[in-house]
Design brief:
The chain has one helix and four strands. By secondary structure, it is an alpha+beta fold. The protein has one domain (14-70).
Length: 73
Amino acid sequence: MALTCPDCGNEKSFQAKTLQMHVVQAGGAELELSDQSTPAIFELLCDECETEVDFASLDAEERRELMLLLGAG
Ligand SMILES: [Zn+2]
């Protein structure tokens, strides 16, 4: 995995933020979860300086590996 922060050169630790949508049904006695999307990556940040790393700059194989790691589809 060849991730590098463009600002500080960190290659080891990154923050991947994912976004997942849940549909909550509130009509009955209890709240129910009726649907949820698979998480999608919406932000990848350097863990050292919090500079945004361009997710699109990764090659397809690297993106796939990261998505699998995070359970994203
Ligand atoms: Zn950095």
